[in-house]
Amino acid sequence: MYIATVLDQIRKLQDEFKVEELIFVGDRGMVKSRGKQELEQRGLHYNISCIRRENRLLM
Length: 59
Fold this sequence. Notes:
Largest sheet: 2 strands, parallel
Order of helices and strands: HEHEH
């Protein structure tokens, strides 16, 4: 899924349902580093799985 598509859908949810806070949940194939930066720049929270190597870095 391209980040532009994700951000577009988030905007639609925010506009249509007056969503003030939202947490995006996806797998690592949906959003890469650039996508995470885009979400952060827009003040959006996210929960995305990571690969085992990344898990070790977080511990």
